[in-house]
Design brief:
The protein is mainly alpha-helical and 69 residues long. Helix content is 91%, strand content 0%. Belongs to the ATPase A chain family.
């Protein structure tokens, strides 16, 4: 029960960290034009990640509840 949750935690953390590192690199390359587009891309990818993480969490919780009954 504990290990899959920790794995999901590290997966989500890694995705968010990678997104922020890409933003930092792109903003440092072109500081005037890219930040607005990258900000919207970051919002979009964060929303997708939150949706996927919530879906996986609900599926895992529902499966663990069903296996106990």
């Amino acid at each position: 029960f504990f290990v899959p949750n920790v794995l999901f935690l590290f997966l989500l953390f890694g995705n968010i960290l990678a997104d922020e590192l890409v933003v930092v690199v792109l903003v440092s390359l072109v500081p005037l034009v890219v930040p607005i587009h990258v900000m919207f891309l970051g919002l979009f990818t964060s929303g997708i990640q939150a949706l996927i993480f919530a879906t996986l969490a609900v599926a895992y919780i529902s499966e663990s509840i069903e296996s106990h009954h």
